[in-house]
Structures are given as C-alpha cells and as structure tokens.
Amino acid sequence: MMNDMMNATTDEIRQAIRQGNWDKPTSGLANGFLQTNLVILPKDMAFEFLLFCQRNPKSCPLIDVTDPGSYTPSLSAPSADLRSDIPRYHVYRNGELTEKPTDITELWQDDMVAFLIGCSFTFEEALVKNGIPMRHNEEGRNVPMYKTSIPTVKAGRFEGPTVVSMRPVAEKDLVRAVQVTSRFPTVHGAPLHIGHPSSIGITDLDQPDYGDSVTVKEGEVPVFWACGVTPQAVAAHIKPPFMITHAPGHMFITDIKTESVGVI
Amino acid sequence: MMNDMMNATTDEIRQAIRQGNWDKPTSGLANGFLQTNLVILPKDMAFEFLLFCQRNPKSCPLIDVTDPGSYTPSLSAPSADLRSDIPRYHVYRNGELTEKPTDITELWQDDMVAFLIGCSFTFEEALVKNGIPMRHNEEGRNVPMYKTSIPTVKAGRFEGPTVVSMRPVAEKDLVRAVQVTSRFPTVHGAPLHIGHPSSIGITDLDQPDYGDSVTVKEGEVPVFWACGVTPQAVAAHIKPPFMITHAPGHMFITDIKTESVGVI
To answer: Could you report the predicted ipTM of this complex, rounded to two decimals?
Structure first.
C-alpha cells in the first residue's frame, strides 16, 4: 500500500483516503503537490474568519475557500470531497475536541464553509531539496511549535497569539533558508524570526506548546516560521459552537503543483 | 500647494485631502508609499466580495479590509478616515453612478465594509526606477484598460471578465519588466499576458474599454497586467443597491512603504 501510495496521483491518493484505506499522516505523500490545513466553520463565522486570514497572511495563507454549503474545493482539487478526503478529522463542540472521525459526511451541514490553509510540508520539501535537513524528521518527531508574544491582528471574535514552528538551521545555511522559503508566501513564506527564542516570547525551546522538542546542535540557529496551527488555536480559543479541522499531520492533498505557487 | 504636497508626509497629504485642499488625481503624490483602489459595500455583500478577492488575487489584491461599520483602515493607515481622505468618490445606486462627491461622511452607514485593493501606480514606480518608461505618462493620458476573455473566478453573485491595463515595453526590457513586477504580488504582480492582444480576447488596442489609447512603437510589445478596475467592474455589473468607490485616479494613500511589500 505504502509503495502504491508513493507513486499514486493526487486523485488516487484522495480516493484511497475516501475509501478508508489510508488513515495515517500524509507527510511524504504526493511530493510536489500542496498539502493544506483545514478549518470548517458555519457561515455566520465565515466572514470574520476570512477577514482574520486576510489580516494574518503569514500564519493563515489561504489556498482555497469553498462556497457556503459546498464541500468541493473547486480551485485546488475539483474532484475532491472535503467530507471524506482527509485521513482524520477533529470535531470541536463549544471549543472541546469531542470526536476524531475519518469521515464527516454525516456531520456536514448546509451552512458550512471550508478554509484550506497553506501547510509547512511544502516549504520543508523546498528546504530539503536545497540541502537543509529537517531535524524533526531525522529524529522521528513532530516539528516543535510554540505560542509567541507576536499577536495576530484581530478580526471580529478571532484573536490570539501567533504560533510558530521551529527548525534548527546551520549558520552557513541561514541565507539560503530565507531565500528558499521567501519564494512561497502561500505556505507561510519567509521566517518570522531568526535567533533568540526569548525575542518572541518563547522561554524554553525544550517545552514546545505543540509537537515535540528537537535537538539544536552546536553552530545551529533556531529559525521560526509562522505556523498553520495559529488559525486552529485562535478558532478553538473563541469556542465556536461547532468547528471541524484536520487532525494534526493528516492534511488535505490538493492538485496544485508546489512550483506553481513559487512567486519567482 | 503642489510643491508642498510633493514633500508632505502621507498623513499631511490625507489631511489636505480631508480639508478639501486637494481634489485632483493622486498620481505622483507620496512616492514610495502604496496607493489603493477603494470599494465600499454593505456587510451583506462583504463575505462574497472578500471571497471574490481571495479567489482573484491578481486583479483584486487586498491591502486592507475594515471591520464592518469602521471607516478606519487600521493596518494600512490608522490615522485615516476613509469617508473623507480620498479626493473624489463615485457613488453607485442600483449599479448607476449617481454622485461624484469629495466626501462621503453623510453617506456612511453602520453596516459598511471598506476594501482597499492594490493599485498599479506602485508597480509603475518600480518599472520607471528600472528604466522602463510609462507611455501613458509620456503622452499625458490615462493607462489603456481592456476587458479580456479571461474570466474571473466566481464567488456568489460576483463574476465577470478580468480587466487588464496595457503598457508597451521594448523587447529588450521584457525580462526586467516581468522580474520587477513579480516582486509585488499585492499590487497585481507579474503580467497576465505578453504579446498578441487577440490571445486574451482584445480585438483592437486602439479602442480601450476604459482609459485612453497609447502609441505602441516599432520594437515594442504590448504587456498586460491584471487591473484594479476589475473588482469595480464586477461589483457594478451585479448592480448592488449601494456601493461607493474612489473616482478613477483618485486613490487612497496608505502609510505602507512600497518596498515593505516586495516579496524578495
């Protein structure tokens, strides 16, 4: 199955997920194609959340937004069904995580709007191609993520701290890391911060708020990118009556070629 | 007055406009700062229009969107008042242009949302700095604009053709023109098309749909950029009960430095 999936098209991968044949994280699948975070909210919160994403493009880069009631991401994957094409979902009721289903067809309502938000898998692929290794992958962990002292820009009810992910980068690779990720503003883009964690309100690198800690070696500098967990954290913070997201690492696979969103 | 305005700060220029001391086009004012198009719509159309802009980022690059009811563009010019800081407005009722006031304070309603959309003045400045002259400025005309066969991506009621502006560029400068404008995705970015007008549904360069025709000289190629008239044309097309925009050429001046939105 794994080998099949590695060589499958994006449509085939989504079909396998839809049929219940893949409920694991999507890292490494569909190389060269954008994967996205998912946030589903009722229409009465959709304008504010759309505004929030527009005001916070580094943490919430929008790849696609569905028409109210539609589960078809017509710009990014017209053959997909967002109710079933993600390996695992998180369902929140009044801000509490109540279910972790692999299909939400039964939960879908006619007033829902789905937001697909750029994911760091994409720029990690670009960094690795440029010879900059990902420590969390080497150590078999999730990328460490931290709440920062950098506020997001409020929109209606949505507000809260910017969440960042951290990757240690060798000093000699810092310039290239900035260049490579600057090409991809729709997947968080250039780093938010290079250097001292305390400058952005992080007190202990070994105690991430999400994910796992990783080793920072001699001669390496911690580099922080805006993180797609931000919109989920912010949305969860205001405890909407009903919200559905992807489960961490279980992303939506689009038909958009990564290179096609490179700005130069 | 003109000389004063040329050396004034963005805040001073907006004050002069607010006090009725400047009702002319803003081209050439506040060099180095972003100017924007303006579209004001009632809240019940705001989600659809925001979605439309999100889906059509080349023609509708959003610089700032106000909270419903607010006339303060808090991200782009916190000291501004969008009811008075634009030299001239166009007021549309049921799709018809009914008034051209210099102040809309009396017309402002509590449910209005203001959209500030990137303007080509910004990338023209970058082109000129790179030695690529603007023919319409040389000839003292407005830039020629054309409806194309390139459809915008529909969002709710909003749909219609993409409008482009055209600038003749010497063949030797084509590469640089693409590079320079690619840096600025928030002000229309890279060209939509280089070459034959007929490839994008334009039958006669001498008959623009908006603005004035300009001379295309021997050895020059017509280059087409997505145009900020698109959202106005699309919004006017669906004849909203009430809409306010800037008058062509009479833009909103922000506090955002042009260089700060360059992606690299």
So the answer is: 0.83
